[in-house]
Amino acid sequence: MVFLRNILQATVLLLGMASAALAGAYEEALPKFANDSYVDTDAAIGAIAGSGNPLSIDVVESLRDGRLLVGSGQVFFRRTSGELVNAATGQAWGNQTGELKPVRVNNRVRRAIEAALGSLTLLSSDAAKRLEAARAVFRSRDEATLPTLEKAIAQEGQPHVRNVLESARAAILLSKQDALPIQRLAAVQTLRNRGDQEALALLSNLPSQAPPEVIAAAGNAADGIRTRLAFWEAVQNVWYGISLGSVLLLAAIGLAITFGTIGVINMAHGEMVMLGAYTTFMVQELIRSNFPGLFEASLLIALPLAFLVASSVGILIERTVIRFLYGRPLETLLATWGISLILQQGVRTIFGPTNREVGTPAWMSGALDIGAMSLTYNRIAIVVFAFSVFAILLLVLRYTSLGLYVRAVTQNRRMAGSMGIRTSRVDALAFGLGSGVAGIAGVALSQIDNVSPNLGQGYIIDSFMVVVFGGVGNLWGTLVGAMTLGIANKLLEPYAGAVLGKIALLIAIIVFIQRRPRGLFALKGRAVET
Amino acid sequence: MALATAALVSGATAGAAKAEETIKVGVLHSLSGTMAISETTLKDVMLMLVEEQNKKGGLIGKKLEAVVVDPASNWPLFAEKSRELISQHKVSAVFGAWTSVSRKSVLPVFKELNSILFYPVQYEGEESERNVFYTGAAPNQQAIPAVDYLAKEEKVERWVLAGTDYVYPRTTNKILEAYLKSKGVKAEDIMVSYTPFGHSDWQTIVADIKKFGSSGKKTAVVSTINGDANVPFYKELANQGVKATDIPVVAFSVGEEELAGIDTKPLVGHLAAWNYFQSVETPENKAFIEKWKSYTKNPKRVSNDPMEAHVIGFNMWVKAVEKAGTTDPDKVIDAIVGIKVPNLTGGVSEMLPNHHITKPVLIGEIKEDGQFDTVWQTDDLVAGDAWSKHLDGSKDLVADWQTLKCGNYNTVTKKCGS
């Protein structure tokens, strides 16, 4: 309670002082918003933030959200409740008849807004706002906020907010002309503890007139941060590799079933992925127009539907075309390639040639910071999803009767047939299963790639590469193949670049396939000999 | 051979019989394959323009007829289809092509059969042909002003030049690198990165950009990333938290059509440089957008820069044909230089002797609704340079099809043909 009262008193005192010193600054700055000039808007934000007027935060926040309006030379803002307020007086303004236009913002103005809000909300009662403000001050390094910053640090109860506040103070002190060497040394230490890219940038761009002992300390600290970052960068590259590998795994795992078991070279596999992505789009469209509340769950709803759509199309293709071409791989290749073109153009005719927008649910947006690396939630979700699909498929093949039949047919088709397994029915079901899995891969890929008729084309080559590299007919091979290719690709990319990295990888695969034509995990059994 | 000749002759006579009734206009845009995403719209624009001209009573007393072919995003097929348009359908002019490689593939055909091509897309320059009219932007009408804007307004000191690995980004980046270095930017402040077509895994590159941009100097990305790869690129930027206020991305191939497939909220503030935005408020543009929406019967349909280029190119051709009184390519090629038509952003574009046109340059920031807010524009129209002044091989070259009759006249050796 005492604490709260202190804040209140301090704020009132501060406001009082500021408004006494800069009386009229707020009123003078306000009309500048009506000039429709970014330079004037920028200047007005600075003046308003320093004016101490209680309406300042409202005005700057409304500007950020496009709620600051001008009309007939006057400035208004609309509260989030919809109420129109005259910015000059703070009075509600109900009877505005003329046309109101929002004040335009560009990047320069956005930066000014961020910095202004930083200094205005440092003492906010909301911890999240204080954190945001501390970050903004760290970026803007505005010396004028130093007194407020000191006060905020003294009051701060939350350690993680206090950390950011302290690094903001350090960032200011490091480049401040009249800072004492002891303050600077402390600042160097604070930034050393922060240990990220931004801290490194501050430490390595020290003003040249800084005292030599500070420069030496900063140099040491920068070296320490570099070592730390190099370690995290390596970890991050491996993570990127796993993430790329899981995308490859998702795209290829359906193919591992169709190509692996029934030996069909299915060039339309990519289009099954595309159908899954378009199913997601349709589901989201329906949800948007009918049940907006379900949007967060749209991907989960799309999963079974995508499986159904893709597997029924797959079974249809198998029953009507591929069935008649068993044992003729070249004809199958041509026929399925034709089907892939038909499906693509069909989708293009129905949905149009342009990309379709598939939204990302809130729980998949943003990033998780671990150490000095940031893992984006959508990638985490895809990695988890890919491994779950893999595990489920493994269980299906291992413990269900369908799995048993499929494995039997894979190992020796004729023997399986003699034992009473209806091989043609198993073929159709296996093809449906593979296609369905491709469909749910499409749901995941809609989050990171274009939902366009060409979606599948981009994955078909990679999928075949993974399956052949890993060993035909072996799910574990597909997993290891996908992960190896993903990680190798991502470890090569920083050194060789995206284009050369890919070329190097392709050459490595060619050499590998020549040495071991059956891939990493060659299947043993009589099927191999035939 | 005999068969082919016979087919050609019969095609020619059939064409001649019809040519008395109509003037044919060829439309050479991919309606299937990877480029359909961008080119289908341009076909629709051409059909609308032809229909509109016919409502006005046609051209020199005849009706216009659009002949649409589908080169299916297949570069050699572009050449085949343009041969079909010119020899078999006897079109008077062709409007088409999108990628530079498709333009390069049809060039020999247009030279050999002496016809006219209007090419509506921004490109890398370093070319001027007698039979081609470039209504899109040359690098000095898009890339250079964009870089100037970032250096002046955003105080950018470090540059990432990111592009798809083919001729347009490579040439543009070469020009930009030479230009930046001439402005005193050091080599270590420029990062160049190329990716394959359709690249979808941007994690490493975006992380690199973040790292490059956190050196303390203001950094910007100049993106010549083309087509489908843009969506995952912007998604990754948003996910890794790269905001326009920290590291702005200025794109040369991202327009209203491309943004229609993305959730644009995280992209607010990123930039694009074009010669036209749908959001430009002029009476000409308003009328055009209304016509376009009612023609396509889709109130959500967007307009973009290459569409405006076709509008300008088509109107120039119409005026040139009226001036020459014939559709004969030689006469039209002579007549069209100096023709002025209003563009949609309030200025008047002129066809220059180097077969490029004058255009305004606009820098726009992406808004939440997927449209652009023009934050800067040139005071006057900028004349397109066929040959860049910033590259060693090309700075002495000029193109002038009126007096010099040459597309690459060397002002040092005083000879045509470099």
From TrEMBL, chain A:
<feature type="transmembrane region" description="Helical">
    <location>
        <begin position="238"/>
        <end position="265"/>
    </location>
</feature>
<feature type="transmembrane region" description="Helical">
    <location>
        <begin position="426"/>
        <end position="445"/>
    </location>
</feature>
<feature type="transmembrane region" description="Helical">
    <location>
        <begin position="495"/>
        <end position="513"/>
    </location>
</feature>
<protein>
    <submittedName>
        <fullName>Urea ABC transporter permease subunit UrtB</fullName>
    </submittedName>
</protein>
<keyword id="KW-1003">Cell membrane</keyword>
<dbReference type="InterPro" id="IPR017779">
    <property type="entry name" value="ABC_UrtB_bac"/>
</dbReference>
<feature type="signal peptide">
    <location>
        <begin position="1"/>
        <end position="23"/>
    </location>
</feature>
<dbReference type="Pfam" id="PF02653">
    <property type="entry name" value="BPD_transp_2"/>
</dbReference>
<keyword id="KW-0812">Transmembrane</keyword>
<keyword id="KW-0029">Amino-acid transport</keyword>
<keyword id="KW-1133">Transmembrane helix</keyword>
<dbReference type="InterPro" id="IPR001851">
    <property type="entry name" value="ABC_transp_permease"/>
</dbReference>
<comment type="similarity">
    <text>Belongs to the binding-protein-dependent transport system permease family. LivHM subfamily.</text>
</comment>
<keyword id="KW-0472">Membrane</keyword>
<keyword id="KW-0813">Transport</keyword>
<keyword id="KW-0732">Signal</keyword>
<feature type="transmembrane region" description="Helical">
    <location>
        <begin position="465"/>
        <end position="488"/>
    </location>
</feature>
<dbReference type="InterPro" id="IPR052157">
    <property type="entry name" value="BCAA_transport_permease"/>
</dbReference>
<feature type="transmembrane region" description="Helical">
    <location>
        <begin position="380"/>
        <end position="405"/>
    </location>
</feature>
<dbReference type="InterPro" id="IPR016024">
    <property type="entry name" value="ARM-type_fold"/>
</dbReference>
<feature type="transmembrane region" description="Helical">
    <location>
        <begin position="297"/>
        <end position="317"/>
    </location>
</feature>
<feature type="transmembrane region" description="Helical">
    <location>
        <begin position="329"/>
        <end position="347"/>
    </location>
</feature>
